[in-house]
User: What shape does this take?
Amino acid sequence: MPHITAADIGSWDDDVRARYERFRVEHAHFDELRAILVRFPSGLGAADDMYHRIMNEGHLGRVLREQIFVAASSVRGCRYAMAAHGAWLAGPGEIDDADVAALRAGEDPASASAAERTLLDVCRKVAAAAYRTVTADIDRLEEAGWGKPEIVEALTVVALSGWMNGIASAVGLDAGDAAMAVA
Assistant: This one.
């Protein structure tokens, strides 16, 4: 049971309810967390806008972004995000259950290329302690074939996951709370 429960849907303003539903239909992620964020509509709006742009726009594919999100959440021990994003990855058959389980366990999916493994490794390091990132980490990514736009994009996904992990953990959401994250 979360420390802070979702706001009663009957108390939501029409514009907040419309925003909530629009995001839910498009992304099918973080329903429980977002229902708690309804208590701070500006925070919900910022989270939705940030999430949509970071997870949908840019050079990296959506599946790789989701894998980065799960990998970073695993490092931070956010079972809620691992469950929600893992369900998205497995739900549409984007990657198999064994690969999702590997990501949740802090390992690379078997289907990942060498370049993706390098990217996931650096993303895990950043998630664990961003301040320990050094030029050699970026050089390693470039040597694996990643350009600066893709690297910045991946690091932005790690940062977004940190924001979401922090709120989910602080309000007491756990993997069981994400059971309905994909409708």
User: Anything to note?
Assistant: The mean pLDDT is 90. Residues 37 and 43 are 6 Å apart (CA to CA). Residues 148-170 form the longest helix (23 residues). The chain has two domains: 9-56, 62-178.
